[in-house]
Amino acid sequence: MASVMLSGTQNLTLFTNRTPKGLGFTSSNLHSKTHPNLRFIAPITRTTLNCRTIVPKCSISSSRPTSQPRFIQHKKEAFWFYRFLSIVYDHIINPGHWTEDMRDDALEPADLNDRNMLVVDVGGGTGFTTLGIVKHVDAKNVTILDQSPHQLAKAKQKEPLKDCKIVEGDAEDLPFRTDYADRYVSAGSIEYWPDPQRGIKEAYRVLKLGGKACLIGPVHPTFWLSRFFADVWMLFPKEEEYIEWFEKAGFKNVELKRIGPKWYRGVRRHGLIMGCSVTGVKPASGDSPLQLGPKEEDVEKPVKPLVFLTRFALGVLAAAWFVLVPIYMWLKDQVVPKGQPI
């Protein structure tokens, strides 16, 4: 069973305690039409979005192949993308997609309730998410991991993070022992993983018994142009895919909470680079029960320069679109009267 609870106009939580045959979402758009195979129950709270409890009655399609073409798909390409983006990341990208109130809201389900717990922030980048973590956990107990030394250099410059451990590493092959951490956090990283299931399996492995993973990432657009740019650029998972990956890895008590900038007023048709916070609890010690084959991407494999530059340029074009979308939504929020859908 899956149930939906709303907290504010843009925050939605999905709860599930078993492997879903379908979560009932055909899109991530709160204004989409009712799916004919879903049964709706009375609203559980007052909201302009008229959110309702949803009981799924249909099967979801299997996850999209991890080999789906993306312009910035390979870790090597993402490395160079962030080599330049790190310069303006905190000042240009975060204000439109990943604000402080969104960060605090997204981290709330992680239950960072003990200053002595060990936390790994995977794909921590410039440390923006880590700043939210160290509000609740002593910095000396937090490890920031990222493949980009340029991003990590920005994190090192932040005074509240000076006692954090800084590690260069791969989210799909974490340099931590099994049953190591109390909490696993990853924000804005999954979209660059060639194999998201492998990354979530690693999250399970490094957690202690009863530890909790919190993965914050994008959601798939339904508007055709946003969907085009998302699908050819990087991974924008559907909400049910997050749930599926967590439960296949072995996590229990899986929850998905919708997040988004206030000025979107809950609109999700353009997708969100930070659109949901997914959590799950590790029910048993040891590695994940899920068995996987070799990695999707060999980072040692040589890349053809012309192909690399072409993909990189097209990826930058797609990225520019998602810089413009929050500006467009902010302008609509200023123009359209409050209380009306935008």
Give the helices and strands, then pairings:
Elements: E1 2-6, E2 12-16, E3 39-43, E4 52-55, H1 75-85, H2 89-97, H3 100-107, E5 119-122, H4 128-133, E6 142-146, H5 149-156, E7 165-168, E8 181-187, H6 196-206, E9 207-219, H7 224-233, H8 239-249, E10 252-258, E11 272-281, H9 305-335
Parallel strand pairs: 5-6, 5-8, 6-7, 8-9
Antiparallel strand pairs: 1-2, 2-10, 3-4, 9-11, 10-11
Helix pairs in contact: 6-8, 7-9
Region (SAM motif I): 119-128
GO molecular function, one term: 2-methyl-6-phytyl-1,4-benzoquinone methyltransferase activity
Organism: Lupinus angustifolius (Narrow-leaved blue lupine)
Describe the structure.
The chain has a nine-stranded mixed sheet, with helices on both faces. A two-stranded antiparallel ribbon has the order 3-4. The chain contains nine helices and eleven strands. The protein is 31% helix and 20% strand. The relative contact order is 0.17. The chain folds into two domains: 2-55, no CATH class; 75-281, Vaccinia Virus protein VP39 (Rossmann fold, 3-Layer(aba) Sandwich), CATH 3.40.50.150. β3 (39-43) and β4 (52-55) form a beta hairpin. With 342 residues, it is α/β, with parallel strands linked by helices. The protein has helices spanning 75-85, 89-97, 100-107, 128-133, 149-156, 196-206, 224-233, 239-249, 305-335, and strands at residues 2-6, 12-16, 39-43, 52-55, 119-122, 142-146, 165-168, 181-187, 207-219, 252-258, 272-281.
